[in-house]
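Box 3.1. Reading complex inputs
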Amino acid sequence: MEDFEDNEFDGPIKKFMYVNRKAPYGTVYALEGLEVVLITAAFDQDVCLVFVDDGVFQIKKDQETTGINMKNFSPTYRALEGYDVEKIYVEKESLESRGFSEDDLVIPVEILSSAEISELMDAQDVIVTF
Amino acid sequence: MALLHTVNKSPFERNVISDCLRLAKDGSAILLIEDGVYAALEGTSASDEITRRNGSIKFFALGPDIEARGLSEKSLIEGLTLVDYSGFVDLVEEYSSVQSWL
Amino acid sequence: MKFGILVNEGPFTHQASDSAYQFTKAAIEKGHEIVRVFFYHDGVNNSNKLADPPSDDRNVVKLWSDLAAEHGVELIVCVAAAMRRGINDDLLAAGFKISGLGQLVEAGIIGDRLVTFGD
């Protein structure tokens, strides 16, 4: 990761939401999106992470990428807590429509309904989708 | 506080507009851009989904993208408003934040 | 109003960079301020000065360079994404600068709105 020291930027605290909508490995968005989340943590902003649609596949446990020779970045999600990124939400409808449950996930998350995710989304200053 | 959502995928190839509609609150706006403008066409297999939310969500489409794709003379969903890039900027200013449904 | 712009796709394959350019230009014409345009994912390829499209097509790289020259718009290319894709200072078209991902976050903090263009 790049170095970005705490408090390097002294400004207002904003509500950032990162919306993860894409599966890992097939495209690079999930991996590079995660890099943005980690950098944001250094700015002491109010960050939350939302997994909807195919984004829920990013945090499926038991990922084993040796066979495709790509970096398995799913353990990095477990490091988010250490970066003070603690608001991690998964949309119930996205999870269930894919035949998944909370037990399939690599990190503890808060499961929210579509309506609850919508409310949360509405209250953000900055929304970035990867 | 209400969001401006942008959708840039054809509803006949990807279901992004459905994903967006599922999480778009009443009072928000959806702007169709790029290949998303195909969702603006009236009477297609995709248009019911939009017309069902018509009134509670404001629908817009980017005129230059409509024209580029030869859709200027086609009937568009009732109540949908065409904007140019300047109008796109106004919408971004008017709503509290922008969610691009990539 | 202050706008931050995020471009996530390269030129020519996707319309994203064209849309972002048209939006940015319209915002400037309306008197808004562009905090910066940040290029991420394959968007870093928008900075490649070797791009040489046929003369009857628009040159997206040049359009961005011209916008930077005329209006002082800051064009920032993400260093990590650029390194992955072999973009370095020697390849940068006029007006582009390579910098860290923090510049994207900062654009979100300083700007009133962050608008993303991608696939």
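In summary: The longest helix of chain C spans residues 16-29.
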